[in-house]
Automatic annotation (TrEMBL):
Single GO biological process annotation from the record: methylation
Organism from which the protein derives: Cettia cetti
GO molecular function: methyltransferase activity
Name of the protein this chain belongs to: eEF1A lysine and N-terminal methyltransferase
GO CC annotation terms, alphabetical: cytoplasm
Organism lineage: Eukaryota, Metazoa, Chordata, Craniata, Vertebrata
UniProtKB keywords: Methyltransferase, Multifunctional enzyme, Transferase
Similarity annotation: Belongs to the methyltransferase superfamily.
Record gene name: Mettl13
TM region(s), chain numbering: none
Highest rank taxon of the organism: Eukaryota
Bias type Basic residues, positions: 435-445
Domain Methyltransferase: from-to ranges: 50-171
Family annotation (InterPro entries): Lys/N-term_MeTrsfase_sf (IPR051419), Methyltranfer_dom (IPR025714), SAM-dependent_MTases_sf (IPR029063)
Residue ranges, annotated region (Disordered): 425-451
Amino acid sequence: MELLPRSPAEFGSARYWDRFFRQRGQRPFEWYGAFPELCPVLHKYVRPRDKVLVVGCGNSELSEQMYDMGMCEDIVNIDISDAVIRQMRERSASTRPKMSYLLMDMLQMDFPEAHFQVVLDKGTLDALLTDEEEATLGKVDQMFAEISRVLQVGGRYLCVSLAQAHVLKKAVEYFSQEGWVVRVHQVASSGDKQQFVLPVFMYVMTKFRKIPGSAAQILEICPEEQDKPMRVESTEQLVAAVKDRQHYALLCSQISKTPCREQVSLDLCDKESGKPRYTLHVVDSPSVKPSRDNHFAIFIIPQGRETEWLFGTEEGRRQLAASAGVGRLLTVALHREQHYEGMAGIQAELSGKVMELAPPGLPARQQQVPFLSVGGDIGVRAVRHCGSSPLSGEFVVEDVKGDGTCYFRRLIFLQNRNVVQSEARLLAPTPLPGQKKRRKDKKKASPTEPPGAIDKSYLCCEHHKAMVAGLCLLGGPDALPGELAVLVVGLGGGSLPLFVHDYFSQARVAVVEIDPSMLEVATRWFGFSQGDRMQVHVSDGLDYVAKLAAEAPAQYDAVMFDVDSKDLTVGMSCPPPAFVEKPFLQKVKTILRPEGVFVLNLVCRDARLKESVLATLRDVFPLLYVRRIQGEVNEILFCQPGPAGRRDPAELGARARALEGALRQPGRPWDSSYALADVLQAVHIL
């Protein structure tokens, strides 16, 4: 501890460094790694005939090793500590005749202009730039000016640093403004226990003549796992890219020592585009007692299934890790913008990286970590359409393979890419009459070939099934709904209004959708169509309902809200808050008939906000039922204008069975998962 400075300012004091090196003696002090770690990068920028200046050399062995390995011999080392210069002269005088050590201040060097091809700095800038006080920044500017003066055009300033944000920003801004090319390398670690948890970087500043009037900057970063540099547009982007790598190193250090109390999430990005390629979750299972081979495993989530409860929620991933029986499970989600070469390709790509996230105490015999998946494959995902709109932002329509042999079409809003906005099951292609079946020896259809038509009879979303079941609340004591007027706010892919239209043959359905792009998507990709009993109104739902309340009250038997919120900062993603404010809910009540029902899909993670919404609903609607969707945040609320519609659970079950029987018509598909009575068994009166 006595070797540490009493204040950061002492890092610039010759007296401090004299005392430091006298107390340390002959033992080399290697700032930020030794020659083996730095050598691969140094080899790129130091040539045997270069004249090299090492500023703030200390008693590091770096110059000696560069000399001994034949990297270069014409090396001049300078330092402000007389003690270390005398020590290093004695060490190299007889064995390295072409290398010299000089007592000199790098802020005022005696060398002529353009004297060196390389200036090498290992930790000296970090030691000098300890704060951002005016005096300190003045010294740094002086240091940079002197380095610039003694370097030839085309020469390189190589600075080894921990790349603290203020240090990196200062260096990059100074030299890029001078017209130099700036590249930052991450230095590969040796794998041994390092003095610093943070990774080490080398700034490579290449001197060019400044072109008057030119504001162009060339800024690049070269991560340790690749040779090809990546161009960035600004100093801020370069600092952010370095910070990402520092955070990753800290994360790896932390989770290699202790189990994760909470699940850790991170993205691994594509080297070329910089876009996320894999999303990883680190899930530790304290209840699993590690044995010989169950410390660590990797689970590849099949494409398109990352939104399922088992893979897309913390509780689901905990259950998955427990069922896998491993102490640490690393789940890996694949991104739709990326191409993957099967399970073997993914394993080859991830094998080195995942070991950096291994749990503490991983036995040496388990260096081959098992890769797991569902069915042993990576699933199928085919993007059918990419689009954007001013209201919904960027979105994609994609086909994915579900569990088993079924395929599904999904609408995803990319601002919330882990949520399926709309989903429909695809029918398997059927041969035309007289058409021969495909011979077995013929080439099978590619997963990216156009699939079959939309299965309009199937409701993929559990909350849609509950919303349909709520229609049994309509009608008198012994009557089921016949002629119906239904208003649906929020179109999405159109599966909910389509189902009501097709299965309630006397229903007239009006749909309100604010985004005309969604009407195009539903029509083109989800089999939606308008007709005599189905009309879409492109309008803001708030305005449409307000206009109806003023001009045509009490005209709907059912009003259904299934509309998402674009504001991700609110703890309620469905509906937007304005749709559950009391004045608007009173307008919704106005357009309902006395025996009607208002059905609301509520997705609210904020407990206080949800309680406030429920209180407002109770103020407006005397009768309120709720159906919670298992494994999801969704809650379906059934609201009725008068208490006369109150029914006990037995009556609700009987009406649901009767409604289901009426909907099951000969020749009309019906899925057994629609058990409406089972849906309503879980309904509670609030």
